[in-house]
Structure formats: C-alpha cells, structure tokens
Amino acid sequence: MQRRTFLTAGVALALLGGTAQASGDNRETVAAEVLATWYRLALELVRHTPTYTPPVASRTLAYMGVAAFEALASGDARLHSLIGQLNGLSALPDRATGQGYDTAVILTAVMEGLIRDLFANTGPTGQHAVQTLSARLAEQAATGLAADVVAASRSYGATLAAAVLDWARSDGGAVIDNMGFPATYTLNPAPGHWVPTSKIVLQQAPLLPDWGKNRPFAMPAGETCTLPPPTDYSEDPASPFYAEAMEVYTTSGSLTDAQKQIARFWSDDAMLSYTPPGHWIAIMTQVAVEKGLDLTAQVEALARMGVAMADAFIGCWSAKFQYDLIRPISYIKKVIDPKWEPLLNTPPFPEYPSGHSTQSAAAASVLTALFGDSYNFTDESPTPDGVPTRSFASFWAAADEAAISRLYGGIHFMPAIKHGQDQGRCIAAYAIALKTRA
Amino acid sequence: MRWFALALLASPAFADVEIPRYVNETASAGIASVYAGEWEFMTGGGVAAFDCSGDGKPELLMAGGTQKATLYSNDSLTGGALKFTALTAGVELDRVTGAYPLDIDSDGILDLVLLRSGEDVVMRGLGHCQFSRANEDWGFDGRDLWSTAFAATWEKGQAWPTLAIGTYIDRTQDAFPWGSCTPNALYRPKGQGFAAPLELKPSFCSLSMLFTDWNRSGTPSLRVSNDREYYKGGSEQMWHIAPNQAPALYTAAEGWKPLKIWGMGIASTDVNGDGFPDYFMTSMSDSKLQVLAAGPEKATYKDIAFASHAIAQRPYTGGDFRPSTGWHAEFQDVNNDGVQDLFVAKGNVSAMPDFAMKDPNNLLLGLGDGTFTEAGDKTGIASFAQARGASVVDLNGDGQLDIVVVNRNTGAEVWRNEGAPKGHWLQLALHQDGANRDAIGAWIELRQGARVQQREITSGGGHAGGQLGWWHFGLGADPQAEVRVIWPDGSASDWAKVAGDGFYDLTKGHAPKAR
Known about the structure:
Chain A is mostly helical. Helices cover 55% and strands 1% of the residues of chain A. In chain A, strands 1-2 form a two-stranded antiparallel sheet. Chain B is mainly β. Chain B contains 4 helices and 38 strands.
C-alpha cells in the first residue's frame, strides 16, 4: 500500500502556486516546481542507488540543501551566505554584475549538476530518469526567458554546482567502496562488541566504520557532541546490561499491533525507502507545502535540515565506532534465548547510539525552530506495505516515536535511544545557529 | 529429513568431486546472436533449447532485443564439435526478450512463447522448425508491455495450458519509473485457446516465474521472483492457482514470509534431499537458496545459501571485489556424479560502478552434502561478458551437459562439455497421450540403491528462457538405475531398470524405450 507522495510536482505546484501567484511572482512558482521535482527524484534515487545507506543519503541531502540555498543567496541581498560558516566552505562563485539571471534556471542547473555527480553510480534506470528530467526541467524553466538570461543562468548554476561538488570531495565521504562495507575489518574479539548479525556476505564487516571521521558541516568535529558510555557489558542476570537486554526481549514478546506499526512505520530501511534522512526531508517539504512557504524559506529549511542530519550521522557514527557495542540480537541469542528474532532486521553496524534517534532528534530540533513546537501534521511520506499514515501533535512527538520504534523493532537498547536523542539535540544546535538572513 | 539422510549415505566425498572440462566453441559453432539494446533491454536475453528437427538434439532460439530473434539449427554430430546454422523459421521478430518452448495445442509439435518489450507472441509449431503466429487463432492477447517472465502448467482437467506472463516497468514512465510495475497476467484455457488475461495483482516487476508443486500437493503454485529495484510495497510472491478458482497470494497465516530481493531468476531442485523442491533465486550481491523450514504444511522457507556456499556473491576470479549481478540460474548435473550442480549467469546490468564489471558465470558443483564448491574457473566457463539467459543442455547428444549463454550487447557463447569420465548418465523424455503431451508437472524419480533423485518437470523459471526435451540425470559410478514417473494426474508408473549412458522415452502406460 502506498501513500500519496508528498513531492508530486502537481501538488507542490498547486499549493505553492497559490502563494506565489498571489504575490505576482510566476517565476518563483516555476522555480519551486523545479526544486520540488529534483528533490522528488533525489529521494527516489536514494531509494534506488546501491550505496545510499542513511549516512550517505544525509550527506547528499545536505549538499543539495546548501547548494539550493546558495543558488538564491548569490542573487538576493536579504540572504546571508553560508560561506565561512560551514567547515571547509571558503568561497563560491559570484554572479556577474549587470547580467540578468533567472532563479528557476539556476536551480535546475545546480540540482542537475549535483544529482548527476552524487548519484553517478545509480543504475541505468536512474540514469535514464536523470537525463529525461534534466531535459524536461531545463526546457520548462527556460520557457519565456531571453536566451542570454537562460545561458547565463545555466552557466552560473553549473559553476555553482561544480564548486559545491569540489568542496564536497574533500569531506571524507565522497568515495563509497563496496557499498560502504570495508574489504577488511578486524572485529574486536572481547565480549560485548559488535559482531555480524546476518548471513549476508557484505555485512560481515560493519557499514562505514570511518564515517565519524568525516568533516562535519556546521559542528566542529564528529566528537563534538559526546555522550556517556553505554552500560558496562555483562552477561550476569543481575547486571544492568542484562536488564536492558531483557527490556528489549520482553518488549519484543508483548508488542501490541500499534507498536508493531510504529516500528514498521519508522523502519526506513536502506534501499527499500527514502531512509531516515529522506523521510524527514519528505516531512519538511510536506510542511513547506502545507504552510505555503516561499522559495527562500524553503531553501533555508532544506539547508538547515540537510546540515543537521548529516552532522547527526557523523556524530552518531563517531560514537558508534568509539563504543562498538553489541546488538540486542547477538546478546539475546547468546545469553537469553537463542531462538529470539526481532521484528525488524538489525542494521549492520554497532548499536550505540541509535542513528534514527540521533538524526530524528536533530531534524525535530530544526523543524521546531522553524515552525514551532506544536505543529500538527499527518506524515504523508511513503510507508512500508500495509502501514497506515501517522499523525503527530508536534515534530518532537514524531521524533520520540521514531526513537522508541527502535526498541519495538528489537534493534536497540534504551540507552542508545535516550542518549542518541540527546546527541541529536546537541548537534542540531549548530545548524540552527547558522545565519541565513542578512 | 528422511531423504536428506539417504542422500548423505550415497553422496560423493568432497575430494571425489569431478571437475568437468568445458571447451569454448563459440568461434566455431556458428552462433552469432547478440542481445542488443539499451534501457528496455537491460533485462531479458533468454534462450530456448528444444528439438524441432526431430533428430533428438536441441535447436536454440535466442532473443535478440533490438535485433531479430534467431533460431539455430543444431547440426552437431553426436559427441562432436558444436555446430549450428541460423534458420529462417518465422520467429524472426525484434524486441524479443525471452523464449520458452511448449506444446500448447498438444499436437506433438512444440510451439513457442516469445516474450517481448511490446506485444508477446505465441508461435504455433508447424514442424521442421517452422513457426507461425497464433495469437489470433488461439485468442491470445499479447498486450503491449515489457514482458520478462514466463511459466506454464496444465490445470487439472484442462486440455490447454495455463500460461503466466510476468512484466516489468511501465515503459512510458521514463522520469519516475519506480513503482510503475505493470500487471502480470494469467492466461487460462478457453476452448481451443485462451481466455482474456487475468491480471495477477499486485504485480511487482517480475523477472522469473515458475509453476511448482512446492509441497507435493498435486497442484502447482506460481512462484514469482520480483525486482525490488522497481516495486513499492512489494516482495517475492507465491500464488495459489487452484482449478476454477481465482488466484490468491499465499499469506503470512500460511507461513509465507516477505522477502525483498532483486529477484532475477529461479532455479529449483531438491538440494537437501527432503523430497520437496528447493529454490535458488539470483539477485544482486547475495543469492538465495531456500529450503522448506517447517515441512510441507507451511509455506515457510529458510535461506541456506550462505551455509551451502551457494551465495555466489562476488566474482571468484579475483581482480574485482565488487558484488555480482546474477541472472539465469539452473540446476543440472554437469559432472554426472548424481548430485545436482548449479550454473549462474552473471553480468552487470549495464555499467553500474558498485557492481562487478568482470563478473564471471558460476558453476557450483554439488558436493552431495548440501553444499557446493565453485568450479567456474576450473572448468573454463568463467566468461566476463554481460550474461543474461542461458541453458545447460546436452547439445551434441553425448550425455554431457553443454552450456550456452546469451550476453547483452555482445555475442552469445557456447561451451562443449568434454566430460567427466567416471560418471554415467541417463536422458529421459516424457510422453503422454492427449493434453500436456510432454507431461509438464510430472516428477521423475531415479533410484540407485537407497538413494532417490527426484526431478519436477516444469516450464518456466530461469531468466527469460527454458528448455523442453530430454531430462538429464547423472548416475555416478553406477552404470544403471531404476526410474519411474509420477504423472501429472498423480498416477505412478512402475519402477523400471534401465542401463546408463542412454536415451529413453518414458511413455505413460509403457515400459521405458531406448532411443
């Protein structure tokens, strides 16, 4: 069963168009439609490109958001560039003085440049779709414009995309070999450390063990937002660690239908969904449509959300491989019940902290800062089969549910959830502090 | 687990496994077929192997994509070099993705089903390797979709087969094709032909289908392997296809568990000797090998590919660390040791940089204990072309199984099996009067001492192509065996002793007859 796709261009155009036409700016309507269509494609490519695990998706969505923001900031004196605010971003190309530009054409060229590069490894169908949309959107954006404006705008957009990509290449996350699983990896043989949780060959090593060393966007370093160590490992039934495992075990054994739906709703599996960062971008864009945000506010939100979630994954991965904690499935099968199976597939990397908890908290922090702490919404992004849409009283209500879903799914102990959320709040503060208005 | 235990008693030891020797005769065999085309032909590329000349050796029909399909006459001498000649046979259509032989009208002459990116076509066999379009005569609505999978069965009491055709992406959705899987169809009999296609919804971009009696109930079900790249909310499927009833998916309550893979090909045999078919599914990266997990009462399967060393996950030749892309899969006994082996055709979808570009086909030799060992490089079949469809079939009538592979955008390849000298073999053809002349849905049982090999006779599966004709068994060192047939109506023939290294016609109601 599929829910309505939030980023259908028609819906975006209809709702955004109302706002833009009311302001008499038809070009903004075109630009918003172009941006929405590229994001729709990007989320599909996240779902369908082999290397797009959640950390990788968060990185791409961050660069897309920053590029979209800078495409506007370069020609709008009301906006304050992120140059100098984001790590390693020391310069971006300027527009030529006296030359007329069009935002829709620039956005088309910028997004095309980024998507062609960042999804260069997608399959033939993705390549086919990118080619098709590139031509279609370029024509759509250029309709009715003077040729010199189109040419200058496309050229500037391509140059801006190239500059952003050049900046991206040095962050440590640009090359993903072997789907993100290292060819060689030495497991820590001491009890309590991560061990493979599946019989899939690639997953005999953990995903992206060096991702925490990547250059963050807004926070100073991957280790910036520290969190307390996990509970001391023990197989003693009287130990706190055993109790945490029993909590997972007993919860798993008494799940209500509602809890199962929550777990599945937020499972956001790599290569089967938009992934957690894509899910939250979908929420953000839905809210943008509902609130009729103008294009400037949209790109500000996309940039902050992208940066916050990308940094959340860097921080989370830094901690994951610092602590290298065993997953519930490994512990419970060894110590409590060898036949136990969790509701969700266990992701192939260490347990502590919970990635979904960290990045959902980061996303909710940004969205709350943008839209307030009591925004009611029904999440319309695609869900797994048979799982209905879910409604929330606030972004934090959604983030809390995403976090606890990992307990219901049997893939995290509670400290990973709680401390992951704390880490996400800490990381998001750097994205929220970015100055985007002059 | 009774059969498993018996199988272990008689299985060859690891050190005894014979490595067959294959000779690449592509250059001299006279086959010049290329499966050509871009996006719409990234899948498909099947080959059908069947005898239409009456000499007992299979001809080959190869899908050509944007090029015309080609039927090759088999001119090989028994035991000799492989020789083929392209024919003008009436099948020379473009946009063909796959082909399966089947005696649809039960006239004793094999017909063909041509899958296409476009209208599918059923071709009536006229004899002497000539065919003519029969869509109109047989009421077959070929639709205009991107067809990629096929299976056939005869439902109980029916004079005509039931066909299942699987389809792929909606070709018109070029910007957002994901989630646009077009409906698969079931063609049930209606008089001397077919009723309007019954859509099998939901459909999830299938690349292989197989009617198979998974629990030996006497009524085959339809397994469908789907490409998760394109469906939304999908998974692998199995349909109840009960006579006079609407198709119905197996449910969680029946034990069916969702599995989401890039399903591209299905092969079946009884790997673990429990008497029920097991299923190997090709995919990208790890393949799956499913065995019944809780007996025939529940349609629950567990994956033993990893434990069986049948995962075929990445090139075994070194030099390319990236994961593989698997297409056609087929169980056969290539070294005649009495244990099923597994051939897997491999090749990148196009130029996907995260997957191996030098991706050799696999030849996994069964060791008799439920595990396999890779021998693709040792046997000489480790081609790096972008393989799609294939057939493991005796092309020169010497009892040794040869291999033909269709490649994307480059020439097809063919290897002659020079043999594994210690092993004896049998080739058996089934015949019955009336409908379903070739006994699709039968089981052949072959007994040697306490050990019984069982083979389900199916039409479908693999990737975009299949074979019909002789059913091959390896006998190992024992030069004889007993055989019997469980016919599609459930009746069983008597056990009959036959000498190895020969071809036999097994006709219902008659003793085996050497040919």
